[in-house]
Amino acid sequence: MGNRTEQSAPEHVAIIMDGNGRWAQARGKPRLFGHHAGARRVREIVESCPDLGVKYLTIFAFSTENWKRTQTEVSGLMKLFKRYLMSETKELVSSGVCVRFIGDRIKLDETLVALMDDLELLTCNNDKVHLTIALNYGGRDEVARATKRLAREVAAGRIDPEDVDDETLARFLDTYVLPDPDLVIRTSGEARISNFLLWQSAYAEYKFIDTLWPDFTRDEFASVLANYSTRERRYGAVPG
Ligand code: FPP
Question: Which CATH number fits domain 12-138+180-228: 3.90.420.10, 2.60.120.280, 3.40.1180.10, 3.90.550.10?
Answer without folding.
Answer: 3.40.1180.10
